[in-house]
Amino acid sequence: MSQPTGPMGALRKYARPRPVVERCQLCGRELPPGHRHLLDLASRDLACSCDPCALLFVGQNGAKFRAVPRDGRLLPDFVLTDEQWDHLRTPINLAFFVRRGDGRAVAFYPSPAGATASDLPAGAWDELTAANPVLGDFEPDVEALLVYRVRQTRDYFRAPIDACYELVGLVRSRWRGLTGGSDVWTEIDGFFARAKERWYA
Q1: One Pfam match, by short name (predicted)?
Q2: FRET pair for 18, CA 20 to 30 Å: which of 129, 174, 178, 199?
């Protein structure tokens, strides 16, 4: 089929979809890939942010937003026995745990429907923190214990909450059928391989 000529042909290039430009949701500044995020503490939604706006909310208790840390860290010495894991009552071997500002800890696990929340049994988080004091240093709401106990792997990460939701989005978009299919598990393995490479301490 021949391409339109004349005025319509000249305008054709402007009708093509343009790349989506992400902007800071506070000041409107154009953002690069890998930009910062803020957590809205009321809605639990993530907001894209430029660095200057994110810095306004670092360490600001009582503010509407909390800045999400940039990086995570692999925790090679983390202690979590099979018995302790069973006590957490998480239905799958892939989950992240967030301590709220009020001290309550909540488990989330990726599913085809998104992030599914699950309350922890009484005392389970305190027991885990006693064995792993590093958990007491996590920033409430915006840092999570990310756990990957699939097959023979036992990996634990101090992860920014936006990375956890990136994993949730990956699972939601790739899941097929009842078991997810082989493609989603290949993607999950790749996510954690990159996390280990980036966050190895």
Answers
A1: DUF5947
A2: 174
| Residue 105 tokens, joined | 């800890």
Within a domain: 147: yes
pTM score, whole prediction: 0.85
Q: Structural domain tally of the chain?
A: 2
Cα gap 176→181, rounded to integer Å: 5
More confident residue, 56 or 17: 56
- For 196, other C-beta atoms within 10 Å of its C-beta total 14
Let me know if residue 31 belongs to a domain.
yes
Nearest Cα neighbor of 26 from 55, 46, 47 is 47
Sequence letter at residue 79: V
With beta carbons less than 8 A apart as the criterion, state whether 41 and 68 touch.
no
- 50 and 77 assigned to the same domain: no
